[in-house]
Specification:
By secondary structure, this protein is an alpha/beta fold. It contains 10 helices and 13 strands. It binds nicotinamide-adenine-dinucleotide.
């Protein structure tokens, strides 16, 4: 099986490339990435074919997709604050980029397209847990680009019969997720702070909750979806209903790193939703064999990656 990963030099993409490279049914992995947030070093040791370039370059996409069986489309500018600063850039990369990927997949001969959407599409809808039947209420340009991603997948399925599967990722964490940039996620930022003896910065009182999913679990689901060629035009939540407050996360991080954490509270961010938790009914029905890696185990693997004692690829 020949698989293309767009955004494969990024956090989730490079972990997926590592998981697929170890799979006997996968004969070839191609990565296309413009290295805007990803790093070539993430995949250098995996024996994948790397194409440096943008998913909006259709001639390059034609070349990369030729003869492939499936595409896992992860390339995107992934941050909400970034989309507030430059909505057009997010739109071009995430919405227009997805359209280019779908159209190339169609021309290349109906490749199976699995794509990453985001829990941010639920936005202002207060209902918990978040089930896929809820009305989306995006609150940021980023969330709109992810809703457009899902809608384009559905449209290409219904208009052209393209086999698609949109997933809504929640808070994915694990080895390879970096802390050294302005839009770093909470887990890498806090592990880095704890290990360096700096205080962890908590926006608000820390009682907000998130549904954290270990990247190895995400890669397990994506691999099964590829190998079983799961086709589903409606989005599927890719999270297991974990409901952890940020204050509890600090306690778990102390256990995972073996270090004490100092907390510093600052004002809440307006773009943050108070609670995010997936209804995982559909995910569990389609992937009954996937058991999520427990958060304690995932945090230990992540902390040890930060301490430099692993190769940077997640266990599944
Ligand atoms: N990490 C999470 O918690 C999370 C949550 C919800 C959704 N997602 C989605 O999952 C996907 C992967 O996220 P990630 O955390 O690995 O982010 P990441 O930034 O590490 O990876 C994204 C990759 O896409 C590449 N890229 C960006 N624009 C591109 C373009 N125009 N052409 C080619 N390559 C491009 C980047 O260089 C990077 O390597 C994204 O679509 C993101 O929106 C992630």
């Amino acid at each position: 099986m020949k698989i293309v990963i767009t955004g494969g030099a990024g956090f989730i993409g490079s972990n997926l490339a590592g998981a697929l490279a170890a799979h006997h049914q996968v004969t070839e992995i191609r990565v296309i990435d413009n290295l805007s947030t990803g790093h070539k070093a993430n995949i250098a040791h995996l024996g994948v074919e790397f194409f440096e370039g943008d998913i909006q370059d259709t001639a390059l996409l034609d070349q990369v997709f030729r003869g492939a069986d499936a595409v896992v489309h992860l390339a995107a500018l992934p941050s909400v604050p970034r989309s507030l600063r430059d909505p057009m850039a997010s739109h071009h990369a995430n919405a227009t980029g997805t359209l280019q990927v779908l159209d190339t997949a169609r021309r290349a001969g109906d490749l199976h397209v699995i794509a990453a959407s985001s829990s941010s599409v639920y936005g202002a809808n207060p209902h918990l847990p978040k089930h896929e039947g809820l009305t989306p209420a995006p609150m940021s340009p980023y969330a709109v680009t992810k809703l457009a991603t899902e809608a384009y997948l559905s449209a290409y399925h219904h208009s052209f019969g393209l086999p698609v599967l949109p997933f809504r990722f929640f808070n994915v964490y694990g080895p390879g997720q970096r802390a050294d940039h302005a839009h770093a996620a909470v887990i890498p930022k806090w592990i880095d702070a704890v290990l360096a003896g700096r205080p962890v910065i908590v926006f608000g009182d820390g009682t907000q909750t998130r549904d954290f999913t270990y990247v190895g679990t995400v890669c397990h689901v994506l691999t099964e979806a590829l190998l079983r060629r799961i086709v589903e035009p409606h989005p599927v939540n890719l999270a297991f209903g974990t409901c952890m407050s940020l204050l509890d996360l600090i306690t778990e991080l102390e256990a995972a790193t073996g270090r004490g954490a100092r907390r510093k509270h600052t004002a809440s961010r307006t773009s943050d939703v108070p609670h995010s938790q997936a209804d995982s009914t559909r995910l569990r029905a389609v992937f009954p064999n996937v058991t999520p890696v427990p958060i304690q185990e995932g945090l230990r693997a992540t902390a040890s990656w930060f301490q430099g004692s692993t190769t940077g690829n997640a266990v599944t």
